[in-house]
Amino acid sequence: MNYRNHFYFGVACWLGCAPALGLRPDPINLSVAGMAALLPDIDHPQSKVGRWVPAVGQALTHRGLTHSFLALLVLAGVLWWLYGHYPQWLALWVAIGVGYGSGILGDVLTVGGVQLLWPMRPRWRVPVLGKSGGRREVVFTALCIGAALSWWVQQRPVLHDLQTWAQEVWATSIWLWHWWQPVLQKAAALLADWARAAWAAAAAAL
Ligand SMILES: [Zn+2]
């Protein structure tokens, strides 16, 4: 999947899972789920997240470790720890897990498949979406968003929720644009610089 489809598929999965788990999707945990869905592709130096930390993509095989049950298990451990310390953000932690899982699932549905049982070699695939980034993927993601939305609408007292939502979306977007966007960009640039320097140092040492 390309990053846009990963993002929206992650959002759709969380929107579909949250009511079933008795958790409430809000604009923050929805966008976090979408971003968590991009994380497995950190193992590809040309992917959205991989470009921030190219060292990771150069070190790992694409669709290997980060697309495996092992990675999910490690992530579940981290999220469990976070839940122990910040139980009030349960929905956020679960959203990250669901988003990450959707990232792996999204790639299982393409021809490339993923090494689910890494370090074992075989690639697991159910290639209903054909080649990664193709048109089928867009249609599929749109259908998932539609299905998740209608499921969510059935689960909620809609009008009241839409009003809360409008307020939340407004507040969140202002918060993101005015404060976090420059901060995030700077942090990403710093991290990328640091990773590049570390990689160069390691290469020189070897
Ligand atoms: Zn992918």
Describe the protein:
This protein is mainly alpha-helical and 206 residues long. The protein is 67% helix and 0% strand. The mean pLDDT is 86. Bound molecules: zinc ion. Zinc ion (ZN) is lined by residues 1, 6, 41, 107.
Range of helix content? 55-70%
Number of separate helices: 7
Low-confidence stretches: none
Sheet/helix structural class = mainly alpha
Element string (H = helix, E = strand): HHHHHHH
Number of strands: 0
Radius of gyration: 18 Å
Q: Main β-sheet, in a few words?
A: none
Mean pLDDT: 86
Q: Which descriptor suits the 3D outline?
A: globular
Oligomer: single chain
Strand content: under 5%
| N-to-C span | 35 Å
Q: How many domains, as an integer?
A: 1
What small molecules accompany the polymer chains? zinc ion
Layout of helices and strands, plus pairs?
Layout lengths: L2 H18 L6 H10 L17 H6 L9 H17 L4 H19 L26 H21 L2 H48 L1
This protein binds zinc ion (ZN).
Which terms would index this structure?
single chain, 206 residues, mainly alpha, binds zinc ion
Q: What's the short version?
A:
The chain has 7 helices and no strands. By secondary structure, it is mainly α.
